[in-house]
């Protein structure tokens, strides 16, 4: 099903409205189709509310239909999944919170939204005039009139107005948050100074790693005390850990030789045939290019024989056998300058009338601005720009190949009719259209079966425990890999097309052995080794991290005891270090030359008001430092007004993000979709 936005652009308001209420009917039909009447499992929890599979699926399909996405790949599916989840967060977490805060949409506000006085994106994307970009109140009125007698339209309107209400409530909430963000004059002054001042001088220091761990001691009691005091730092997403082995499916030498024999046999027929189109239809490995190309657009090794009218290949290149022949040759311009007017396919009569007027001398640019529904180019008088001939495919090839500079042609393709004016045509050159045959180098069915059998034997031997799994891996000469899948994740990083494996992991118990999964081109067997449903990482899991922090603190104190002297040279002597220079350090600097990333040190340097004074010791991330500023350079890089605008925007953004994060954290959201999606 096409996206609402696409339909609006191509077909106008009426068809957009139709698809809007058809969308809701489609969503509502899913529950019945999938048989959720008696079994609707829980896929999440939001602020105590159970999120059922059917509710999530409704949201997912609504987002997909509105975006026009086809779910062509895992990445796009992940984006749609995230958007659907946020829709449910808004419904179950944000909206109840708004109600408690008294944030509502009043009846006058609702009427203002509908009338276009304050239109929301939810309504604008449906009821905007594609020619003007303006919200079309008349289209809304027409739709509501239809809804009086059409239940589907009534349902669609309810869905759209609910979206509009949600959007307005969020806008109100964000307005309150922004209103509470204020940057005072002192902050502006400090920010301006920080942006305009740079510091140069000398430093001395000593790294923590020069102090052996044996010289300081961190007890278990100290680790536990730190964990108790800083528990919020160790908040985590529940996760599952699995160990898995991969049985790779790779072509054998026999597979390579058999494939080459096949290629040679096909090549004999390919080389001899006089009917390339029929050959392509018979051979699933053959195809005809959808466009004409020049020699410059072909790889050098292909261009020579093909442009001379000879066959290319068969050649093994990039793990693929390829052979190609020229299907058709044209002398056409290298590039064409094009203006166009795009109309819905339903406006064929209008297209004919405009074509007659244009050929009679009407102004093309003005006509495009008035009638073209493709807003991007209509604003520029329909100018598409100069395109290579190879950019055109399908229905465009024949009319444009025959066109000359100044011609205006009508081309119907897909959902649109286009009037195209050629205002520039470069010198013709030789273009060819290619028929090709490709055979990727891949494992045979026998090889795949052998790998599957290996995985099957392993799976039998691995059952029972993690130890049995590891012993079976050693016997099969495969190395287990470890992966941790966090709640809500849909794939294992580094493992192609692992969605089914993740779904299994989310439903398995400790020590469970998986079935044999076909992951990418290979076979995978896994064992679930750990389930961590804790919202906070246990102290045992983060003890090493805490220990390193405490070691750093104690090593700082250890080094500090050695610091002596009133000059950098004297301090350097006491630490066994050397004085080194630094230049052009600003408050916004990322690192200090010769030291690295040390935010505390940068902050201390940027806070210096005088010159020639030895600083206090600075506890950095990697060491203890002292410095002396020799020069403070002042440049007018930032004005107070520009700094005020920047700081205010940053404060509002931080407040908004922090507010949303805080709300969701307090709601204790659990994402259990991994068991089903």
List key phrases describing it.
single chain, 677 residues, alpha+beta, 4-stranded antiparallel sheet, 47% helix, 21% strand, globular, disordered N terminus
Q: Can you describe what's shown?
A:
This protein is of the alpha+beta class. It folds into five domains: about 5-180, no CATH class; about 190-235 and about 540-635, no CATH class; about 240-250 and about 445-530; about 255-330, no CATH class; about 335-425, Chitinase A, domain 3 (Roll). The strands form five sheets. It has a four-stranded antiparallel beta sheet with strand order 16-3-18-17. Strand 10 and strand 11 form a beta hairpin. Helix 8 (about 150-180) packs across helix 24 (about 640-665). The longest helix has 29 residues, at about 150-180. The protein is globular and about 90 Å long. The two termini are about 20 Å apart.
């Amino acid at each position: 099903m096409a996206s609402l936005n696409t339909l609006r652009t191509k077909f106008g308001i009426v068809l957009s409205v139709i698809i809007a209420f058809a969308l809701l009917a489609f969503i509502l039909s899913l529950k019945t189709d999938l048989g959720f009447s008696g079994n609707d499992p829980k896929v999440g929890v939001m602020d105590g509310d159970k999120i059922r599979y059917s509710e999530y699926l409704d949201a997912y399909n609504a987002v997909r239909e509105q975006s026009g996405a086809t779910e062509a790949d895992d990445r796009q599916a992940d984006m749609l999944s995230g958007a659907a989840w946020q829709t449910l967060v808004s419904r179950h977490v944000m909206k109840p919170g708004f109600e408690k805060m008294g944030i509502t949409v009043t009846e006058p506000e609702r009427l203002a939204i509908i009338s276009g006085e304050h239109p929301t994106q939810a309504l604008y994307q449906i009821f905007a005039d594609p020619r003007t970009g303006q919200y079309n109140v008349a289209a809304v009125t027409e739709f509501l009139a239809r809804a009086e007698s059409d239940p589907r339209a009534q349902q669609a309107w309810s869905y759209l107005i609910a979206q509009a209400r949600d959007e307005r409530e969020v806008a109100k909430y964000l307005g309150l948050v922004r209103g509470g963000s204020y940057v005072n004059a002192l902050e502006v002054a400090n920010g301006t100074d920080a942006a305009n001042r740079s510091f140069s001088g000398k430093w001395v220091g000593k790294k923590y790693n020069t102090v052996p761990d044996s010289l300081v001691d961190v007890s278990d009691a100290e680790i536990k005390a730190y964990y108790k005091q800083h528990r919020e730092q160790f908040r985590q997403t529940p996760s599952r850990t699995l160990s898995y082995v991969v049985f790779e499916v790779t072509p054998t030498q026999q597979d390579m030789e058999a494939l080459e024999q096949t290629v040679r046999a096909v090549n004999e027929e390919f080389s001899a045939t006089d009917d390339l189109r029929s050959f392509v239809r018979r051979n699933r490995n053959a195809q005809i290019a959808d466009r004409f190309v020049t020699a410059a657009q072909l790889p050098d090794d292909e261009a020579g024989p093909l442009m001379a009218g000879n066959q290319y290949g068969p050649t093994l290149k990039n793990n693929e056998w390829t052979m190609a022949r020229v299907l058709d040759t044209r002398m056409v311009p290298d590039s064409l300058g094009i203006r166009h007017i795009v109309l819905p396919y339903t406006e064929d009569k209008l297209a004919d009338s405009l074509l007659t007027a244009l050929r009679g001398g009407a102004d093309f640019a003005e006509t495009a601005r008035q009638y073209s529904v493709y807003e991007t180019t209509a604003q520029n008088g329909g100018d598409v720009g100069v395109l290579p001939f190879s950019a055109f495919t399908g229905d465009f090839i024949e009319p444009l190949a025959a066109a000359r500079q100044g011609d205006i042609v009508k081309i119907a393709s897909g959902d649109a009719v286009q009037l195209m004016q050629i205002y520039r045509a470069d010198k013709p050159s030789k273009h060819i259209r290619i028929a090709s045959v490709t055979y990727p180098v891949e494992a045979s069915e026998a090889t795949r079966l052998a790998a599957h059998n290996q995985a099957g034997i392993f799976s039998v031997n691995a059952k029972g425990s993690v130890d049995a799994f590891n012993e079976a891996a050693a016997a099969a000469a495969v190395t287990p890999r470890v992966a941790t899948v966090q709640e809500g994740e849909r794939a294992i990083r580094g493992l192609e097309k692992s969605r089914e494996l993740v779904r299994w992991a989310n439903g398995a118990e400790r020590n469970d052995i998986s079935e044999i999964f076909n992951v990418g081109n290979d076979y995978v067997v896994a064992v679930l080794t750990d389930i961590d449903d804790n919202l906070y990482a246990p102290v045992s899991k983060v003890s090493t991290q805490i220990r390193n922090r405490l070691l750093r603190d104690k090593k700082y104190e250890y080094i500090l005891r050695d610091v002596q002297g009133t000059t950098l040279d004297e301090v350097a002597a006491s630490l066994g270090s050397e004085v080194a220079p630094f230049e052009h350090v600003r408050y916004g600097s990322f690192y200090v030359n010769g030291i690295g990333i040390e935010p505390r040190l940068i902050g201390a340097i940027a806070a210096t008001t005088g010159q020639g004074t030895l600083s206090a010791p600075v506890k950095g991330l990697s060491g203890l430092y002292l410095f002396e500023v020799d020069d403070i350079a002042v440049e007018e890089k930032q004005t107070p007004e520009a700094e005020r605008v920047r700081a205010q925007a940053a404060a509002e953004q931080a407040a908004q993000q922090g507010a949303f994060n805080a709300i969701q954290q307090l709601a204790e959201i659990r994402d259990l979709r991994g068991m089903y999606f």
